[in-house]
Specification:
Order of helices and strands of chain B: HHHHHHHHHHHHHHHHHHHHHHHHHHHH
Largest interface: A-B, 49 and 50 residues
Oligomer: heterodimer
Number of strands of chain A: 2
Order of helices and strands of chain A: HEEHHHHHH
Distance between the termini of chain A: 73 Å
Largest sheet of chain B: none
Largest sheet of chain A: 2 strands, antiparallel
Chain lengths: 180, 567
């Protein structure tokens, strides 16, 4: 049977079990070499898994450290879109603002009208979990404002926001200053 | 920058197709992460040239926005609870209850039908939760599992149909199901859409589709791949009657755990204690199990299956990278340009669009749904104005049921692989049955249900319930009837030639796809012959793409197992 022949030998043979543990269940060098049954490279799967776990941790930890933890609990079910014309400033995609607040995506926040939100709370009653949407938007608005002042928000995004009337009066001075 | 979207879309689709066809043989999460990295590198270069370093620095934040935490955490807590149920003997209790049910007037068949439809009845946010819990139980119905009630062929049908029902039950789930994404968008016009405008069409289509899957597995799949299921046949002379009468005795704590499980689900679904996340309710249920049933944390952890979690997360990363680099905008442009082709038009394009996720089945429906539902929304009055709000609701119903069932036939770590594993089948065994039912039955049925009943309920200006229910009944009979005839005819003309059988099956797909596309066009535009023809053509194109990806033969690896020593 071809299964018994095993894959061709690669590089120096080393017993993983004899190496010291670096993480529970994982020996040194297992990270980098010596596994013969992987795909294109010896360690691609491990690197990929490490990337996935890191991305998940970043998604959870970042909002916690930035004081916007409620964004983690959003189902992204979009029930808040039913706010319709009961949003006094005409924001139609509220869930986008929540996601932008979770990952600190300034472009997404501005593009969807986050800087014109007046935090009236009308959308909150449509949330299936009654998440504190006004509070979440306020935190992100302040962070975006700081980023605008610091000059880290791309000018293109701010200029588009101005053109499309997506900047509220609280932020208009900062945005105009940043663009000019 | 539009060019960037086409490049990243090509990278993603190319890598997925290479993996689907088996040219790349690494776990799906690795390929998805690779796709993410490649898209980000290309996107980073383009953004640096166009907007400078600040835009590149914000790229990680943009792609992380693709991650949807809810299904990941809901799945983990569901698996957690399933682990507790297993450790405390909850499944033994369920077996005992099923034993009582089997001896009731509904008998074995009625019991199995209820069991198969249990996922859609409970509608959890991920079908894997219940599948992970109940698939080992279903296996026990066979000879190898101990009860010996069902033959090998029957067990294949039972497991396959149950898994089909599971991997689609996330659609109508009111506790963060996939369908809620589309309901949210429809909420822009129908004020009560988030109360479940898509729930009934999905549930109805799923139940009908499950029945078609059962027939397909019995009459087509088992004939096409006769040597690719390693389950043992019941030995000759084995007395099934005696084995099936063996009494299962469950411990009391098993019944308590089962009660905690059911109550947790009911609280999560109906929220009598106020609005709270499903995860919190399920974790509270798990803690109660630890306290009352005296089980350990390790028992709960044993229930966790990592692959779906990591595959789903990797899919979200890939989708996030595509969104951040304009890949989905490019896809919307491509679909938009299909409308300009006269033979297809809007109806043909939509007939292809609703089947998109069955054409490219990924490990979790949410990966593409989160990106494609906004695209579909733009086809309505919000931007392109191809469709009115009512028509948009009809397309959403067809699209969402097709999307939510797409994790079933996915060979990239999809939920259907759990069923294939349980029935000891080679990967790809269920693909034909699952894709056929989604394409030919579920999508058109959901559209018809939405047109004739749900729109009347959610927009009650013109309620004509009797006429509408009769219409749905007639369409259900017609759709199911035609496809059942195709399945029976196909099974009659199969022969040992795999190539010939594949062609026969492909023709069946094309006919049913055309029919499905035509029905979708009728649901949207009523009796407009041009539009119905365009829809049928779109359906045929989608069916060709789906049918060509159903494996002609499966690996012969299992043949060696089957030829091994008997038990």
């Amino acid at each position: 049977m071809s299964d018994r022949e095993g894959p061709p030998k690669i590089g120096v043979k080393r017993s993983d079990a004899s190496q010291p543990l670096v993480l529970p269940g994982i020996h040194r060098y297992q990270f980098f070499s010596n596994l013969k049954d992987r795909g294109w490279t010896l360690n691609l799967d491990r690197v990929a898994l490490f990337g996935i776990v890191s991305a998940l941790l970043a998604t959870v930890i970042k909002p916690l450290l930035r004081g916007n933890p409620a964004t983690i609990y959003c189902y992204e079910c979009r029930a808040c879109y039913a706010t319709q014309d009961r949003c006094p400033v005409g924001i139609s995609l509220q869930a986008e603002l929540v996601v932008a607040g979770r990952v600190l995506d300034y472009n997404r926040f501005i593009r969807n009208g986050g800087l014109k939100c007046i935090r009236c709370g009308n959308c909150q009653s449509y949330c299936v979990q009654y998440l504190p949407l006004p509070k979440m938007f306020e935190v992100m608005q302040q962070e975006t404002k700081q980023a605008i002042v610091a000059g880290t928000v791309p000018q293109e995004s701010l200029a588009q926001g101005l053109e499309q009337g997506l900047i509220g009066k609280e932020f208009i001075d900062d945005v105009v200053k940043a663009v000019s | 920058m539009e060019f960037l979207g086409y490049i990243t879309l090509s990278i993603f689709v190319g890598l997925m197709l290479l993996t689907l066809f088996g040219y790349i043989r690494t776990p799906v999460q690795t390929v998805l992460v690779l796709s993410t990295v490649l898209c980000l590198i290309v996107g980073g270069v383009f953004k640096y040239i166009a907007y400078g370093w600040d835009a590149v620095a914000l790229l990680p934040n943009e792609f992380l926005g693709g991650i949807i935490l809810h299904p990941i955490t809901a799945l983990l807590t569901g698996l957690f609870l399933a682990g507790g149920l297993k450790a405390s003997g909850g499944f033994e209790a369920l077996k005992e209850l099923l034993g009582y049910l089997r001896r009731s007037p509904i008998g074995l068949v009625g019991t199995l039908v209820i069991l198969i439809n249990l996922p859609v009845i409970s509608s959890l946010p991920c079908g894997r939760i219940l599948a992970a819990a109940l698939l080992p139980l279903l296996f026990t119905f066979g000879f190898e599992g101990g009860m010996g009630i069902l033959t090998k062929s029957q067990l294949i049908v039972l497991i396959g149909a149950f898994t089909r029902n599971s991997m689609g039950s996330c659609g109508p789930s009111p506790i963060g199901g996939v369908g809620q994404i589309a309901e949210g968008f429809l909420g822009s016009f129908f004020p009560t859409a988030s109360d479940g405008i898509l729930r009934a069409p999905q549930a109805f289509a799923l139940m009908l589709g499950t029945a078609i899957v059962a027939l397909f597995l019995k009459f087509v799949s088992q004939k096409l791949y006769p040597n690719d299921v390693a389950l043992r046949e019941t030995p000759p002379g084995f007395n099934m009657q005696n084995r099936s009468d063996v009494q299962v005795k469950a411990p009391v704590k098993g019944f308590i755990a089962l009660a905690i499980f059911v109550v947790s689900l009911l609280i999560a679904i109906f929220q009598p204690l106020g609005k709270m996340p499903v995860q919190s309710v399920l974790v509270a249920g798990a803690l109660l199990m630890i306290l009352i049933c005296r089980i350990h944390l390790n028992d709960l952890l044993e229930g966790i299956i990592l692959l779906p979690v990591t595959a789903m997360a990797a899919g979200f990363l890939a989708a996030g990278a595509l969104a951040a680099t304009g890949g989905f905008t490019a896809l919307a442009s491509i679909l938009n340009s299909l409308v300009a082709i006269k033979a297809l038009g809007v109806a043909g394009m939509l007939a292809i669009f609703v089947q998109f996720q069955t054409i490219l089945p990924l490990s979790c429906a949410r990966i593409l749904t989160a990106a494609l539902v906004p695209t579909l929304y733009l086809f309505g009055p919000a931007q392109f104005d191809f469709l009115s709000w009512s028509q948009l609701a009809i397309v959403m119903a067809a699209y969402i049921i097709n999307a939510t069932t797409s994790c079933g036939p996915s060979p990239l770590g999809g939920g259907g692989m759990m069923g294939e594993g349980t029935m000891r089948a080679e990967t790809g065994f269920i693909k034909g049955a699952y894709t056929f039912a989604s394409m030919a039955v579920m999508a058109p049925m959901a559209a018809i249900f939405m047109k004739f009943l749900n729109l009347s309920v959610f927009q009650p200006s013109d309620p004509r319930f009797v006429r509408d229910i009769l219409m749905i009944g007639s369409f259900a009979l017609a759709i199911a009837g035609v496809n059942v005839i195709f399945i029976f005819l196909g099974s009659r003309i199969f022969n040992p030639s795999a190539s010939r059988n594949f062609l026969v099956q492909l023709f069946g797909f094309l006919f049913s796809g055309g029919l499905g596309g035509g029905i979708l066009a009728f649901a949207l535009f009523e009796i407009d012959i041009t539009k119905i023809f365009q829809g049928a053509l779109g359906g045929v194109i989608a069916a060709a793409l789906i049918g060509l990806m159903v494996p002609k033969t499966l690996s012969k690896r299992l043949t060696a197992t089957l030829a091994g020593p008997t038990i």
